[in-house]
Target: EFMT2 methyltransferase
Amino acid sequence: WDAAYERELQTFQDIGDAGEIWFGEESMVRIIRWLEKQKVPLDSSVLDIGTGNGVLLIELAKSGYMNLTGIDYSPSAIQLSEKVREKEGMSNIKLKVEDFLAPSAELSGFEICIDKGTFDAISLNPDNAVGKRKQYVRSLCSALKPEGFFLITSCNWTKEELLNEFREGFEILEELPTPKFCFGGRIGNSVTALVFQRK
Model:
């Protein structure tokens, strides 16, 4: 990931392009719309897990959210998100290099945790993916307050699979609508977006 973000950092410095928006603009709109519909207070503490270029945090800040933190284990990603934050003049967004699978003690007490593709990336790790997924759930339990919301967008997992992965400590609140496609007479989704609540 470092190499990918180093390229995006160079591109941002050259032409001001923040790079890839995972799952597209509509995925960010979907998250923000849900938070607004639930009347989630604008001062709620929000953690973006695997923030990448930080664009989701910028959009949340533009929507009025004030207590925003982004973490990524790639220093290049955090460098890129710092540049994007600077360009947008959003100095109140907190960014830090942090491995969610080995979180520091201060990574706790969040009211909302958001994941767009990070759980997917962890799941694809060839080195003990099952253990890493279990560690992710443990880390999430310590980062998110009881009753807190976890919004996950995934292109690797179905709703049923995600319900199984997060069955310990979480309950499903809602499935968010995502684009559908038809193949061989069956209708499916290329992306799954779910909202869980921590028990």
